Amino acid sequence: MKTNSKLKQFLVANARIYLCFCILILSISCSNDDDDDDKLGNWVDSSVFDGTPRSSAVTFTIGNKGYMGTGFDGDDYLKDFWVYDLEGNFWSQLADFSGSARSAAVAFENSGNGYIGLGFDGDNELGDFHKYDPANNTWGPIAQFPGTPRRGALAFSSDTSGYVGTGFDGDNDKKDFWRYSPQTDSWEELVGFGGNKRREATTFTIGDKVYMGTGISNGLNQDDFWVFDTTSETWSPLTDLDTDDYDVTRSNAVGFTIGTRGYLVGGDNGSGITTSVWEYNPDTDFWDEKTSFEGFTRQDAVVFNNGIRAFVALGRSGNLYLDDNWEFFPFEEEDEDD
Amino acid sequence: MKTPLNYLLIFEIIVFGVLIGNYFLEKEPESNHYTKYYRVRVKEFPDDHGWYYEIYQGDNLLIKQKNIPGARGNQYFKSNQQAERIALLVIDKLERRVAPYITKMELDSCHIDFQN
Known about the structure:
The complex is a heterodimer. Chain A is mainly β.
């Protein structure tokens, strides 16, 4: 009998231990996935140079190569230029930009070449434009931008032309748009944009449509949203960015495309710098919120985007200039350990 | 109460403790020095028109520098010593956590053959 009761005591104590550990393990594993989330999207850390920050740089992407250069590191305006290999996750330094060192420039890609211009050199807004030839690793000036020299402008392209518009010329925010024709090396003004003047706006391109919105003027984030049809070169208004269902308005954000959806990341939403990420569906003209950016909050970042993959890198958070690089996977669940 | 069964209970608690402790230790990110360590590999182009370098951070290729950095055109290092000199300068910058770009002035002062 005595051994029996001891055995019983042992079994009860044993069961308690197991129960305690089971509860402990359950509570640990559950605490990992209780945050937000019915939102989709995952951000994965990629390669960049530790401790070498840069904001307001420019980028253009050709195939699997992301080209990045110029910008401001908190002390100096920069003119070095780099290429990031999206497949191999490594960098190479290219020929220096042929214009003066600057930040807040714009870039677009056309027929395998990159075009960079405008910006701010610390004293003045700039109006020059330069062409980069990746095959020969050379830079050369092209025709001067005919609008007022400016920074914080927009640039995008079609198969045949580049388009540049909006921005801040030192006195005023702008709403003019210009078309650059590489064949004739000439600029021509495009009329017909009915939106507000602005600086630090964002675009993303889905097929032959360019979606344009956000940005700021006179301290107010602009809420109008437009689509530009590159075949007919006409602007059409879409649903505002500030509705009862969502508020996507912001400035100094980045925009990119993955598949048939457009994305807006980061920027200043008026009450501060945000990590929020929104997905635009052109079929429904509606925005959905995705998993927030996993790096620091930021503005003036850059994005490498070839329509299939997107990497958001660099930028600044207040006076902290950033040095990281994150790839976005819009249809994956968030994983904080990658 | 001092029976072998009690010792068995204590033993079980220790085993579970160790198992759970291990679980947390394994979740700690690997922060060994190796991943922060930069090294260089200088290589010759197969058709011997020059030399280039690769810089690794741990096992990961960080920079693959085929053209002479900052110089215009597709110019390549004329010798492995010249490639290595610039690669070591880049590593020095990475270790000091300054932007690892190379200027034309630095190419000159390192006696690199290139056309401006």
